[in-house]
Amino acid sequence: MKNIAGITILKNPPVWDSSSPDPSSILLNLKDTGQYICNEKFSSFLKGKKVAYVCPSPHLKGLSMGDFIDSHDLVIRVNQSFSIPESHWKDYGKRTDCLMGCLNIHQRNDLMTNTKFFKSLKFITCPMVNGNTINAVNSFIEYSNIPHYNVDDNYLLTICQQVGTIANTGLMGLITLLNYDIESVYLTGMSFYNMNSYGYFHGIKDNVHVNDTREDIHKQKPQIDYFHKILEAHYPKKLKVDDYLIENFGLKYSKDTRSAE
Question: Where is 188: in which H helix or E strand?
Fold first, then answer.
């Protein structure tokens, strides 16, 4: 593999910063299988579409972006395990066509509880390293009878090695998306936990604690650094971003930033 979604793979990746083991020793034993191989079902689902990729940061509150988000061909939400409450539609939109989820035990239980939302999904994608839980995750998504795709652990571990930490679901999912033949991705609601300052960081669910983020595993600074590379490779043509990211990453506004207009 020579690149990750158009970003050159470094022979000397950043120093590993995570309480999870450095994946380098695992990857050394793998043969180079070439470029990322797209999943046929996911490829067909995404082909030619304008996608809204929505994370739950509270910076969306009060911006009235809901209709714009819902105007996209597809709305993909990160780690969303319940229907968006009507009180949040104005800012976050109400559609969820695809779940981009870590599918850990907590999320799987939430989805089983919120059956109506779960069964309404058109696609489920898991862009998180499964490790020894892979059988449980695969059984769960196969049981759902919803079209699904569990991204290969070896590819995800390569991403993590190049980032320098175990990346969040949101970043892993974005990188996965950028491998596909989509017209554009509008990224919104991603803040890297308030640019690594944490504080109040979830705009839809109130009972989320900073300990739930496992900051010891998912360090934000290496992800912020890698996101700069993603922007250099894909902004503003294939990747569009919201004002928060434009301002925090020092980007120039583009006339086509809002891809569905």
Answer: strand 184-188
> How far apart are alpha carbons 196 and 218 in whole angstroms?
11
Q: pTM for the whole thing? A: 0.91
**Nearest residue to 60 (alpha-carbon basis) of 169, 157, 202:** 202
Residue 24 covered by a domain? no
In a domain? residue 240: yes
Q: Is 205 contained in some domain?
A: yes
Has residue 129 been placed in a domain? no
Q: Per DSSP, which regions of the chain are E strands? A: 3-4, 7-8, 50-54, 74-78, 98-100, 123-126, 148-150, 184-188, 239-241
Instruction: Split the chain (261 residues) into runs of 10 and give each run's mean pLDDT.
Output: 90 94 79 73 98 94 97 97 95 97 94 96 95 90 93 93 96 97 97 71 50 76 96 97 95 63 42
Domain containing residue 83: CATH number: 3.90.1480.20
* Domain with 71 in it: 49-95+154-248
Alpha carbon 220 to chain centroid distance? 14
Evaluate whether 253 touches 31 at the Cβ level (below 8 Å). no
User: pLDDT tens digit string along 191-238?
Assistant: 998 776 655 445 455 554 444 567 788 899 999 999 999 999 999 999
Residues of the chain with pLDDT > 70, as a percent, come to 87
- β partners of residue 53: 76, 187
